[in-house]
Amino acid sequence: MTNRIIHLLQVSPKNLLSIYFTAGFPQLGDTRAVLKALQESGADLVEIGIPFSDPIADGETIQQSNQQALDNGMTLKLLFEQLASMRQEIAMPVLLMGYINPVLQFGVEAFCQNCQEVGVDGLILPDMPLEVYEEEYKELFEQYGLLNIFLITPQTSNDRIHQIDYLSDGFIYMVSSASVTGAKSGISDDQEVYFKRVKSLGLKNPQLIGFGISNRETFLRATKHASGAIIGSAFVKILRQTSNLEKDIHTFIADIKNR
Amino acid sequence: MIEEATQYHVNEKGYYGRFGGAFVPEMLYPNVEELRKNYLQIIAEPSFQTEFQALLRDYVGRPTPLFFASRLSEKYGTQIYLKREDLCHTGAHKVNNTIGQILVAKRLNKQRIVAETGAGQHGVATATVCALMGMECIVYMGELDIERQASNVARMKMLGAEVRAATCGSKTLKDATNEAMRHWINNPVDTHYIIGSVVGPHPYPDMVARFQSVISEEIRWQLREKTGRENPDYVIACVGGGSNAAGAFYHFLDEPSVRLIALEAAGKGLTSGHSAATTALGKPGVLHGSRTILMQTDDGQITEPYSISAGLDYPGIGPLHAYLFDSGRGEFYSATDEEAVQAAFELAQLEGIIPALETAHALAHLSRLGARAHEVVVINLSGRGDKDLATYMKYIQ
Ligand SMILES: Cc1ncc(COP(=O)(O)O)c(C=O)c1O
After folding, report:
1. Are residues A74 and A29 in contact, defined by beta-carbon separation less than 8 angstroms?
2. Do A155 and B182 touch (CB under 8 A)?
3. Who's near B141: CB < 8 A, 6+ residues apart?
4. Spatial distance between the Cα atoms of A118 and A95, rounded to a whole number of angstroms
5. What are A53-72's pLDDT values in tens digits?
6. Across the interface, do B299 and A102 touch by the CB < 8 Å criterion?
7. Predicted confidence band at B338 (pLDDT cuts at 50, 70, 90)?
8. DSSP strand E in chain A: where?
9. Element (H, E) at A256
10. pLDDT tens, position by position, B225-248
11. What separation in Å is there between the alpha carbon of B103 and the centre of ligand 1?
């Protein structure tokens, strides 16, 4: 079977909406309910955040969701239990996103094996260096059918973008601005210059734009320049406030996708 | 022998054995890479060295004395020398590093400095050099530490720095470090991050160790002058992140006859659940950009350390120390709050020197060392105790 991420980007490489949410948040047992509601309301792919005590690339909103998930009792082991039968009802691509330390403690090979068993398609581990991936993990990830998604930022040099493109499969996560998550909203003209620069590099991998995407307007502006866009903090804020998970998720996604 | 001479120093990939590296998200990569590419060359420039050495001499007050502590020596039946980093301007070794880093920042054309601080010693040392160089200074400090270390907060403010509270997580040093790193992510071009210990992504551990290495450089010639000996038998230092220890060990790393002894904070006891003894309680992992030894849960969540001394209240140690521990080159022990306080009073009353609570952990090891009469013990007196008087006062009836 081809990887679900690769398949998705082949059949519909436009206007893709990817949603990030933190596992075990707002309630410990909500992971599957959020996943299901996202699929039903029309999200194209999801990134499930593995909570970590020290998320240095995240702003307040995601920091708090991480902390609350941990306070709820969330662990990586529990996440795999929650995801165990997800492929009976979830068809869209699923990625796990998180800091590398919990993965190291779980054991990298055991982690990959569990990912494959539950049906995870890709990984985003922002604090894993390129060389470490290449030297220590690439083979392992490939063996278990996991795509590794790298980030680029406005400060990433063209040479390095090419190197990342060469090592990537699936898509490249194009961080829209030099910031932590949830820090800035909106997309400026400067950012469009950066999106155009990346577009002109002729990369083999499509790009999804993340950071600063929060609503239909920013989604449309971003997807002009890439295959899709990723929403994190704005969605986590919805989860934080909701009293009706399903309904609020449907409204949020519908507002962005089909209005 | 050539391989010997470098085995405890960082390799070209940024590792000490299996520890170290630069585990940073892409948002930090350009900042760290800019530093990595330039730091060795900048430090080697004659104009840098001239300015650095002049400031260490005329501003910090170096060389700091190597003092023969005769009454302490008599009590423990050995030859004890104190390396007086407590006499540095601002009261601790921390300023050796901040002087070096601000000169690097200037040469990288940075306009603003961000730093983290626990006890406030590194924050004060950073605010001090920023005032000296006329640079804007932002210091992140855990909300709890702001309450615990009010006098250092006042010093930083008087020096013109902006102190920002880290309100997330445990609200202490680890969280202040997270906030400083986030600030650097959000301000990648004009800001330099002055990290306060031999922690963080490569090249920080090596750069900070180099700036602190002046401690052991001086110990060497001072000891030769005073005793005719090339090397001491023991060098003892406390370890939070490990910068004063790295500086005190640096020029003895490749001298196997010198026993390098590191003291961690056992807090209320190793098994009490209130401790900061990283090597005793930790496992390898990744935090703040490097692979090192960390206190953490089985799930890989970093646990909150505890020590009576805010400067040792960190859940990890620098990668150099993880390697010294792992390879057996360094000997790691711990001292409890009680043992440290007792050792501080002993030094005060035998030698007339009030040490910082952090330093007191190193002194506490003397009673267990078992050094012989002819042996030479150097203790790195990393800081003075003025900032800790409120704590010490609780022990004075
Ligand atoms: C006097 C003193 N000693 C030691 C330390 C611990 O830091 P390090 O292990 O980096 O020397 C501190 C930190 O605040 C300090 O103020």
Report:
1. no
2. no
3. B116, B117, B118, B120, B123, B149, B153, B163, B164, B165, B166, B176
4. 11
5. 999 999 999 999 999 999 99
6. yes
7. very high
8. 16-22, 45-49, 94-97, 122-124, 147-148, 151-152, 172-175, 207-210, 228-231
9. helix A245-257
10. 999 999 999 999 999 999 999 999
11. 21
Token digits of residue B386? 């003025």
**Kind plus residue range of the DSSP H or E element containing A67:** helix A60-72
Please check whether residue B385 is in contact with residue B372, taking contact to mean a CB–CB distance below 8 angstroms.
no
Test the A interface: residue of B23, B37, B195 with most A CBs within 10 Å: B23
Nearest to B202 by CA among A148, A131, A160: A131
Q: For residue B185, which residues of chain A lie inside 8 Å, CB to CB?
A: 56-57, 178-180
Task: Kindly list the residues from chain B whose CB atom is less than 8 angstroms away from the CB atom of residue A156.
Answer: 26, 29-30
Phi and psi torsions of A224, nearest 5°:
-65, -30
Q: What is the pTM of this model?
A: 0.97
Q: How far is the CA of B266 from the centre of ligand 1 (A)?
A: 15
B94 is catalytic: yes
Mean pLDDT value across residues B16-30 = 97
Task: Tell me the ipTM for this assembly.
Answer: 0.96
pLDDT given for residue A259 in this prediction: 55
CA distance A152 to A198: 10
> In which band, very low, low, confident or very high, does the pLDDT at B6 lie, cut at 50, 70 and 90?
low
Please, what are the domains in chain A?
4-8+15-257 (3.20.20.70)
Residue type, A120: V
Q: B186, A183: Cβ pair inside 8 Å?
A: yes
CB-CB contact of B80 with B379 (8 Å): yes
DSSP B203: T
Alpha helices in chain B (DSSP H): 2-6, 29-44, 46-55, 70-76, 94-107, 121-133, 143-148, 150-158, 173-186, 204-212, 214-227, 243-249, 278-281, 319-327, 337-351, 357-363, 366-369, 389-393
Q: Walk me through the domains of chain B, giving residue ranges and CATH numbers.
A: 25-56+95-207 (3.40.50.1100), 61-92+212-393 (3.40.50.1100)
Residue A224's contacts (CB-CB under 8 Å, 6 or more residues apart) are none
What is the distance between the alpha carbons of residues B23 and B208, in angstroms, rounded to a whole number? 18
Average of per-residue pLDDT across B248-277: 98
Give the N- to C-terminal CA distance of chain B in Å, as an integer: 56
Task: Decide: B212 in ligand 1 pocket, CB within 6 A.
Answer: no
- In angstroms, what separates the C-alpha of B65 from chain A's closest C-alpha? 40
Least confident of B63-67, B242-246, B302-306: B302-306
